[in-house]
Write a sequence for this structure.
C-alpha cells in the first residue's frame, strides 16, 4: 500500500516505498505519483525491480494511460532504469536534465524514446501537470552533475532525490526530529554530495519556499521542525571533495 503524503479535492500525492521488499540485494527506493484531477505524473519511477508492483499499485489510484509526465531527478538506474516499460505503458514524455537526455535512451529499445524526451535546462523549469505544475529546482551535483528537485506548491512538498536520504529506517514513519537520524544520514551525505559549497547554495534557495515536507528517494519523509533542522545541518556539512586528500589517490599496492 502506498503512503498518502497529501490529499485535497482532486489532488493526491502518493509514495510507493516497499516495492523492493523481496529483493534484499537492492537499495530501498521511493517512487511518487502526482495526481491532479484527471491527469498525473510519476517522479523517479525506479528500476525494473519496481515496475510491476508500481504499475499495478498505481492502477488502483490512477490510470497510467492518463499520465502527462514522467519526471526524473537524474539518470541513475534506481531512478529510471524501467523507462523502456513506461514508454509502452503510457504516452507521457520524459522530463530530465539536458545533461542526461541523450543517455537515457540507452535504457530503451532503439527508437522508443523518439520525440518523447524533454530536456530541463540547468536553470530549471516549470512542468505542467494539468492545471498545476511541478517546479524543477536546480540541484546539480547533489549528487549527479545534472540533477533537479521538484517543488509541488499545492502540497508544500519538495521532492529531493538523494538529498535527505536516510538508510535503515522505516520509510512510512516521517522524521520529525533530525538529531536521532543523523547517524543514518551522515555517511551517505558525506560520500554522495559533492561539496559544502553546493549544499550552501541549495540551502539558500530552498529557504525561500514554504516547505511542509522534504521527501527523498530513499528513506523517510522529513516533516515539521526537522525540515529547518535538515537545511541547517546540510548547510554546514563538509562532504565530497571537501574531504578528499592525496591519500585517497594513490596507486594500489
Amino acid at each position: 500500500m502506498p503512503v498518502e503524503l497529501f490529499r485535497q479535492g482532486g489532488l493526491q500525492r502518493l509514495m510507493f516505498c516497499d516495492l523492493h521488499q523481496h529483493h534484499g540485494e537492492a537499495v530501498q527506493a521511493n517512487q511518487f505519483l502526482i495526481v491532479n484531477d484527471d491527469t498525473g505524473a510519476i517522479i523517479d519511477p525506479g528500476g525494473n525491480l519496481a515496475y510491476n508492483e508500481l504499475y499495478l499499485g498505481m492502477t488502483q489510484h490512477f490510470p497510467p494511460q492518463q499520465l502527462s509526465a514522467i519526471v526524473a531527478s537524474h539518470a541513475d538506474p534506481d531512478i529510471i532504469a524501467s523507462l523502456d516499460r513506461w514508454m509502452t505503458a503510457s504516452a507521457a514524455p520524459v522530463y530530465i536534465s539536458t545533461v542526461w537526455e541523450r543517455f537515457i535512451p540507452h535504457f530503451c529499445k532503439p527508437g522508443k524514446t523518439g520525440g518523447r524526451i524533454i530536456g530541463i535546462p540547468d536553470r530549471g523549469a516549470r512542468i505542467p501537470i494539468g492545471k498545476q505544475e511541478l517546479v524543477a529546482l536546480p540541484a546539480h551535483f547533489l549528487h549527479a552533475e545534472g540533477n533537479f528537485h521538484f517543488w509541488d506548491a499545492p502540497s508544500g512538498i519538495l521532492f529531493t532525490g538523494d538529498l535527505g536520504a536516510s538508510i535503515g529506517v522505516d520509510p512510512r514513519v516521517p522524521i520529525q526530529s533530525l538529531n536521532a537520524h543523523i547517524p543514518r544520514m551522515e555517511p551517505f551525505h558525506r560520500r554522495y554530495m559533492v561539496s559544502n559549497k553546493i549544499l550552501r547554495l541549495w540551502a539558500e534557495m530552498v529557504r525561500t519556499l514554504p516547505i511542509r515536507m522534504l521527501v527523498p528517494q530513499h528513506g523517510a519523509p522529513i516533516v515539521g521542525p526537522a525540515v529547518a533542522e535538515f537545511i541547517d545541518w546540510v548547510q554546514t556539512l563538509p562532504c565530497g571533495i571537501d574531504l578528499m586528500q592525496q591519500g585517497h589517490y594513490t596507486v594500489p599496492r
The longest strand covers residues 132-138. The CA atoms of residues 24 and 49 lie 11 Å apart. Residues 3-248 form a domain with the Metallo-beta-lactamase; Chain A fold (CATH 3.60.15.10).
